[in-house]
Specification:
With 208 residues, this protein is mainly α. The protein is built from 9 helices and no strands.
C-alpha cells in the first residue's frame, strides 16, 4: 500500500473493482492490519487482498487493466507482492498473517516510521493539534484534561500522560508508538475538524 501510495479509499475502491463490486475490504480493516490491531480478520479479508494483488501483478506483467476499471490512472506505476516471481496464493497470505510463513522477498522487520521521522512527526502533530484546539476555542492549559477525556479513545494512563507531554512539546513518540497511536490520533484531530483519516493526517504533517 505504501509503495503504491494507495490511500485507504483507493485501496478499497480497487479491491471492490477486482471483486465485481463486492465490498470485502474496508478502511477500518486496512488500518487494523497495518497497525497490528486486527486480531481475527475473516477469510474474506485475505481473499480480497489476494485478488487485488493478483490483478495488480497481471497488470504489471501483461498490461491488462484491473477488472471493472477503464483506466490505469490509479495504478499506472503499480507494484505487487511476489514470491519467486509470482503472486502468492491465498493460503500464503493467511500463513504470513498467522506467523506460519516468512516471506522471502519482504522485510517484515522494517519500521513504519524511522525514529527520526517519529520524533519530527510527534512535534508536527502537536503543533497541528494546538492550532486546531485554538481555532475551536480550547485552551491548551485549562481545557487539556477535558479535551483528552472527550476526544482521545484511551483509558491507559501511560498513553494519556504521553499524549499530554507531546502536546506540550515535552516528549515524542517512538516509531512503534506512533504507528500504534495513529488511529487514536486521527480520531482526535477529526473531532477538531482536522484530517478525517490517517492518510489525510500524514499528508497534513508532511506538508508542515
Amino acid at each position: 500500500m505504501d509503495t503504491n501510495q494507495f490511500s485507504h479509499p483507493q485501496m478499497v475502491a480497487l479491491t471492490r473493482s477486482c471483486m465485481d463490486g463486492v465490498s470485502w475490504l474496508h478502511s477500518s480493516q486496512i488500518s487494523g492490519l497495518r497497525h497490528c490491531k486486527l486480531i481475527s480478520p475473516g477469510p474474506r479479508t485475505f481473499i480480497a487482498i489476494y485478488w487485488l494483488n493478483f490483478y495488480l501483478h497481471r497488470y504489471i506483467t501483461q498490461k491488462q487493466l484491473l477488472p471493472n476499471t477503464s483506466s490505469s490512472n490509479a495504478y499506472a506505476h503499480a507494484w505487487a507482492v511476489t514470491e519467486d516471481g509470482e503472486p502468492p496464493s491465498l493460503g500464503w497470505w493467511m500463513e504470513v498473517f498467522a506467523g506460519l510463513r516468512t516471506p522471502k522477498d519482504i522485510d517484515l522487520t522494517s519500521e513504519y516510521f524511522s525514529e527520526d521521522q517519529a520524533e519530527r512527526k510527534s512535534a508536527e502533530f502537536a503543533a497541528l493539534t494546538r492550532k486546531l484546539m485554538a481555532s475551536s476555542g480550547i485552551d491548551i492549559i485549562l481545557d487539556i484534561d477535558r479535551f483528552i477525556r472527550d476526544c482521545y479513545p484511551a483509558g491507559d494512563h501511560k498513553r494519556v500522560s504521553q499524549l499530554k507531554a507531546v502536546l506540550m512539546g515535552q516528549a515524542y513518540w517512538s516509531a512503534d508508538e506512533l504507528a500504534n497511536e495513529l488511529p487514536a490520533l486521527t480520531a482526535l484531530v477529526s473531532r477538531l475538524r482536522g484530517p478525517k483519516n490517517e492518510d489525510e493526517l500524514l499528508q497534513a504533517l508532511s506538508d508542515r
